[in-house]
Design goal:
single chain, about 200 residues, Alpha-Beta Plaits, 8 helices
Length: about 200
């Protein structure tokens, strides 16, 4: 990651002497690091929206563990090299070129424009989904032994009448649904005929 900072700083033609960040006093750093801080706040806010929109658990971090926003911080980190640093360095460069600009405003304005243009939040939503294992769950009640046997042959019965399968492909999931639909209709027709005499 250190090399990424250096590479992007060189591409933007700005001086870079390393990341300097004090959690207890984030404003006590140089201007380029302040730009990174401002861009990181915008990135984290977008990640929080993406986590909320996908109904994932914000505390469920894989890299970050000590925060109520661990998962959002993990997602934000995925976009550091393609969003956070280019926005920070781009905003900082604009301020170097025009001393009348305010660094925080410039970075946040650039962040908003870049988010809209690049669809950052939808990209983060897709990124957060890729962290999670897709899970297929079927809950049954009053079904035939044939149905229970079929489900047990392709899924794990984690509790009585509750079947799940992590990473079930769409094709397999569609086939399971098709079989269950057909069997349900056949069983329902049989029950209806029996009830009607």
């Amino acid at each position: 990651m250190r090399e990424m900072y250096k590479l992007l700083a060189r591409q933007y033609g700005i001086p870079w002497e390393g990341r300097r960040y004090d959690r207890n006093c984030p404003e006590k750093t140089n201007a380029v690091n302040m730009a990174v801080n401002h861009a990181a706040v915008a990135t984290r806010a977008a990640a929080e929206i993406a986590v909320a929109a996908t109904a994932t658990i914000p505390q469920l971090g894989f890299i970050h563990e000590d925060s109520s926003l661990s998962f959002a911080l993990d997602i934000a980190d995925l976009f550091r090299d393609e969003f956070t640093l280019p926005v920070a360095f781009g905003g900082y460069k604009r301020c170097l070129e025009d001393a009348s600009l305010v660094l925080e405003r410039e970075v946040r304005t650039l962040a908003g424009a870049t988010m809209r243009r690049n669809g950052l939040i939808p990209s983060m939503m897709n990124g957060s989904r890729s962290f999670l294992v897709p899970m297929t769950v079927v809950v049954t009640r009053n079904v035939s032994g044939r149905t229970r046997g079929f489900l047990a042959s392709c899924m794990l019965e984690v509790a009585p009448s509750v079947y799940c399968a992590p990473r079930m492909s769409k094709g397999v999931r569609d086939r399971v649904k098709s079989v269950l639909d057909d069997w349900f209709l056949a069983e329902w027709a049989c029950i209806t005929r029996t009830a009607l005499g």
